[in-house]
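The methods section describes the discrete structure representation at length, but only in general terms. An entry of this sort, consisting of the sequence and the corresponding backbone structure tokens, reads as follows.
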Amino acid sequence: MMFTVNGQKQKPVPIIFDSDIGPDYDDVGAMALLHAFADKGEAKILATIACNKYPNAAPVLSVLNTYFKRPGIPVGISKGKAVSIADFQHWSDTIVAKYPHAIHSNDEAENAVKVYRRVLSKQPDKSVTIVTVGFLTNLAYLIKSKPDEYSGLSGMDLIKKKVRRLVSMAGKFPGENEFREFNVKIDSAASQLVFTKWPTEVIYSGFEIGVKIKTGLPLVNNSAIKNSPVKDAFSICLPMARGDNNGRNSWDETAVLVAIKGQEPYYSLQPGTIIVNENGSNSWDSKGKNQYYLVEKLPYEQVEKLINDLMQHEPGSR
């Protein structure tokens, strides 16, 4: 299947999704976008991976993949040292109890690094986009991984060979040394390693991009959508915080949008190099040609409407 951009046929973007799914629920919106693009023929989901070890992480990924009629997508989870942060709103408990899923515990999910290495080894060279909307724990482990049954290459060489670009919801730009963005600070050592060593193009969707974009209300208010774990998550969580009265900040959704559609016409790119400090804050060095952060180009309201529309996508025949 191919899709068309400006009259030109384009192959679906092969994509690995790495998420801290749990402490925030914009990850659920990001998963909805991911599957919506896949149903449109614009993305090929190679794997869904959790960098957060709280007990519902792998089951939630399984619920969402199953709901969107892709129950066979590999699900990985960190098996080494990693953080475990649960959702205080208990939306994950609700959807895991309510909806079918093949993976019922993190123990049933594969090791995240093994999933990365197996999936990457089978892909054409320079083809895979990795989108991270959580901590950089798994990618740090991937960089340090050794040759195995899937590939004789080191982790770094496997990334160089197979990955086209990394799109990461991380940081704030151009950077404030006192500001510690959540995804960067939680595992700051991994963030430092990955963003210093990563060998391919990196695009950052910073805190300032998603904070303006409020989504979820159109989905919650759409009475035609029933029995949706995406709708349920937003229905449970939006009323719990005064700041979410107009919708939830869409940090993770913007990263998925750019990973699959590219930055144009929504954003322009500012080149340079991220600097991650030990405390998890970041700044930006304008020198460098392989890393970029997004700069708003279209009015954010237009991106907000697009994301809201995509989040209302329901699974269908393909």
Remarks:
- The chain is about 35% helix and 20% strand.
